[in-house]
Write a structure and sequence with these properties.
By secondary structure, this protein is α/β, with parallel strands linked by helices. It has 13 helices and 9 strands.
């Protein structure tokens, strides 16, 4: 009798396991990746790669569709709100507005925090980056990987902007990021937050004088057509994130979650490399198109002018956290 019960239990256990197994292998899903950037931007090329890897490794059961140019939402804040509500599946975008949802993330957007790409990779791929990614959980996001937007430079139609003094009073579009806004305000500019999809036309009609973004964005969004000066300030490094809506994520079987998470990291290595390639070639291209690339920027002057903002956020986050980033080698 006892043996019968045990055999019966074993049988039903293995049947359960079998059922779970087949449910896993039958799981299908199509998810939309949304972004503000164009199909030529490394975000989009990285997202295509991400989708290819997932499709291949799930034998087509899980597929992604990429929606560029803010087609699913007006800006990155709206995309993040959509993730929380479950109306947007996947976000590929900057960390810029993420600090408004997951407060610890704001630390990466402090000006003059990262020295170079190598420093960036060590921090974001190390324990500090892992913790920041884990923290976004509380905001209703599932953080998959850090990609990159890049070091940001200042463009405008009025002055070379070698120093903040020269750029005084410029009406500058920024992201909805407290650290960026305070940094430009303390440096004497007039920061104006705005969704990316509105920036090109706002520059065209002169509602704003300038904007700040990495070289890849200046290139793929053709800002050289409408901006006279591009000053290579490199005032802040702008990471990018791949975030999944938790509402959607939680319905995906664990094995598939692992495939997706791994693919996001691999596609990120590809995306960062693309983003960093050919910067000098792109700068030459801007010059050919008539934009003055200001290479002799007085970086120390910019850093000094933004120091009060740095100190303010260093106080907020704690010296130990800032030092842990600065001292990463
Ligand atoms: O995430 O809004 C911006 O300036 C960002 O750099 C852009 O959307 C890329």
């Amino acid at each position: 009798m006892k043996r019968l019960i045990v055999t019966g239990m074993l049988l039903s256990f293995s049947m359960l396991a079998l059922a779970a197994d087949s449910a896993r292998n039958e799981f299908t899903g199509t998810y939309k990746i949304t972004m503000t950037q164009t199909p030529a931007h490394p975000y989009a090329l990285g997202a295509n790669k991400f989708g290819d890897l997932v499709k291949e490794r799930t034998k087509g059961r899980i597929q992604f569709k990429v929606f560029t140019d803010s087609t699913l939402a007006k800006g990155e804040r709206e995309m993040l709100e959509g993730l929380q509500q479950g109306t947007i599946d996947i976000y590929v975008g900057s960390t810029g507005p993420v600090g408004n949802f997951s407060p610890s993330m704001l630390i990466v957007d402090i000006p003059f925090l990262f020295r170079d790409n190598d420093h960036v990779d060590k921090v974001l791929d190390g324990p500090i980056g892992k913790q920041l990614l884990a923290d976004v959980d509380k905001a209703g996001f599932n953080g998959l990987a850090f990609w990159e937007n890049g070091f940001r430079h200042l463009s405008n139609n009025k002055v070379a902007a070698r120093t903040p003094d020269e750029a005084k009073g410029l009406k500058l579009r920024t992201m909805e990021n407290k650290a960026h806004m305070l940094a430009f305000k303390t440096a004497g500019l007039n920061p104006t937050p705005m969704a990316w999809s509105e920036v090109y036309s706002a520059l065209q009609v002169g509602v704003i004088d300038g904007q700040e973004n990495p070289i890849a964005v200046f290139y793929t969004s053709k800002l050289y057509e409408i901006q006279k000066y591009l000053a290579l300030t490199g005032h802040v490094y702008s990471p990018a994130l791949v975030l999944f809506s938790q509402k959607k994520w939680n319905r995906i079987p664990k094995e598939d979650q692992e495939i997706i998470a791994q693919a996001a990291v691999e596609a990120g290595i590809f995306e960062r490399k693309l983003n960093r390639d050919d910067e000098e070639k792109k700068l030459k291209y801007f010059e050919d198109k008539g934009t003055v690339v200001v290479r002799d920027v007085n970086k120390e002057a910019w850093q000094k002018a933004m120091q009060p903002a740095f100190d303010e956020f260093a106080r907020q986050f704690g010296k130990d956290k800032i030092d842990a980033i600065l001292q990463t080698r």
